[in-house]
Structures are given as structure tokens and as C-alpha cells.
Amino acid sequence: MKYIDYEKQVQYDTLSKRAIRNQTFIETLSEEMRILYVALTRAKEKLIITGIKKDFEKQKEKLLQQIERYQKQNQKINPILVKKYIKYIDWILLVYFYEPSQVETIVDLKTYTKKDVLDFCEKREEENINLLEMMEEHKIDEEEIAKIASTLKDTYAYELSTKIPTKSSVTKIKQREEEQIEVSFPAPKFTKQEKEIKLTGAQKGTLLHLCMQKLDEKIEYTLEKVKELIHDMVDKEMITSKEADHINPTAVLKFTQSKIWQDIKQAKEIQKEKPFYITIPAKEVYQEDVPENILVQGMIDLYYINGQDELILVDYKTDFVQTEQELVDKYKKQLELYQRALENALHKKVNHVFIYSTFLGKEIEV
Hints:
Blueprint: E1 3-5, E2 10-12, H1 15-40, H2 56-69, H3 79-84, H4 88-98, H5 100-103, H6 114-120, H7 131-137, H8 142-153, H9 159-163, E3 167-169, H10 170-175, H11 201-213, H12 223-235, H13 241-244, H14 249-255, H15 259-265, E4 269-281, H16 283-286, E5 293-305, E6 311-317, H17 324-346, E7 350-357, E8 362-365
Parallel strand pairs: 3-5, 6-7
Antiparallel strand pairs: 1-2, 4-5, 5-6, 7-8
Helix pairs in contact: 12-14
């Protein structure tokens, strides 16, 4: 802040304010020099720099006087001049006039007056052209017309490659039922009234997924303990009380009574909710002969190594189905990607792949 003398009714900068201002100025100059350096070192063959000065010859004379007065310091331009001349064009001219013998071999300095520029823009007389007559004189034959039409109608041979995304998710691949690529954007949640927002079947399934992920293999679960787990998730603000009402504790308890759960309790290693990325050929998804690859991301619900050192992959499904085969047919491709990603990451063969259906309350080996 400034120093204020209330008795004398005056104010002025303190030494600390001036010091900060000077330091800020130096830092700003340094940053501007860095920007200029970057600009000057990007050209590969030729660099054209333009600048405007009101009276170049007069300013040039003044600049030469300053250079003669402030000689180099440690083979560098005197800092006094660098601080005094703070425009890019001035810095460039300082270098040019400090070392003319060296710089002239690589720099061609040209100056133009306003008159010179106006002379470059020579006036041309307007020419009256009869377009219809020109078209009559330059008629092209049918063969040339057909060639132009063929060119205009030509299609890009790799058009599909421009539409295929470079990155996708396992869920999107599963949901893709048609070969054509469509992009849609659902209305954002903030455009809906609160009363309109209801949990979808997929959201309810996600909540059930989350609850199953939070199960502790060291606990012997009862229905009451499952309810306690759900209540604890609400207390930790992982879910809301409204969302908790949509979790079926009986379905969760059923899973803790399955063969998979018993196997997990004796497992050597357990991994839950593991994200993965895998590169696959695009033709596997789009059934088109394209050379591109797609980066696919996904999330593995559960995998573990059992007591027999076997690698087991498990995926939870909450779909309402009539038969086990419906789930197998629907998710076989997805689980193949999970298996491929897991084997690539661990360098170990997956011995068994299971779907656990919360609706049927059973595990299904794929």
C-alpha cells in the first residue's frame, strides 16, 4: 500500500511497494522474452516479422545513440536498454544494431514508408466481362462433364473410419444393435424438475451392484446384517435414503449363500471393481473391414484366485430374465472382452467365467 501522511495530506509509494513493482516488471519482461524466443525459434526455413514505427529513421538514430552509450555487459545487451525498450520490434532492432556484422548475414532489414505501401497497391482498371459470352466460348464436351460429375459424386473410401470412435466402453458396445453409428445426447438432469427424476431399472441395478461390492468376506451375513450394511452406506453418504429403499436386501443375502461367495471366502486374492482398458480391432465391433483399432474401457465387478490357484471372473447382472441362456447370449461378447483384458493384464489364463444373476439368485458359468 501507499504511505499516507494525514498531517501533510500527502501520499507516496513506500520502498517495499516500489521494490514489488520493479520485481513484477522484471518478471513480466522475462515472460515476454520467453514468448518472443518461442516465436522466433519455430520457423524452419524463413521467418517474416513485421512492425510499425511512426518515424523510423528518427527513432533509429536515437537507438544507435543509446547503443553507443550503453555498451555490452558480459557479452550481452545492456539491461538498461532492455528495460527501456519494451516492444518486440525494439528488442529485435537492438540485437540487429548491436551486432550488424553478424546479424546482416542472416537478417534482411527492409523499411517501407506509407507511400511505398500505397504504391504496392496499384489501381487496376475495372474490366467489363460478359459472363454468358465467356461460357459460350468455353463450352466443354459431354465426356468432360461426365468426368466432373463422377468426381463430385465420388465417395471417400474410408468414410466409415471417420465415424468410428477411437474410444468406447463395453456397455456401449453391448448396446449397439445396428451397424450404423449414431450419437445422441440425453437431456441434462438439471433441465428436469426434481419430481420428474425417478430411478430407472439401470440405476436400481447399479445400487444393488454397489451394495454387493461392499460385502465383507469375513462376515457371516444374515438379513439384519445386510440391512445394517445398507444403512451404513446411507450414513457414509454413499447413497441417499431414497436410493436405499430400492436395494433388495434379500437379493444381496442370496448372493452370500451362493457357491461363489463360499469360494471367495477361501480365496488367495480378491479384486473388486477393477477398471481396465484394452485395444481391439474395430472390425470386431462394426463388422466392417477397417484397419483401425478401438480403445475399449470397462469395469470388472469381481475376480479372484481360489485355493486351487484358479483365476475366476465374476460379473453381476440384475436383468429381469426368464432363463439363464438369455443372460449368456446377451453378455457373452462383453465377458469375452473382460476375459481378454484380464488375461493380458495378469498374464494368466482365466479358468472360469461366471454371471451371477440377482434376479434368478444363482451363478451361471459361461
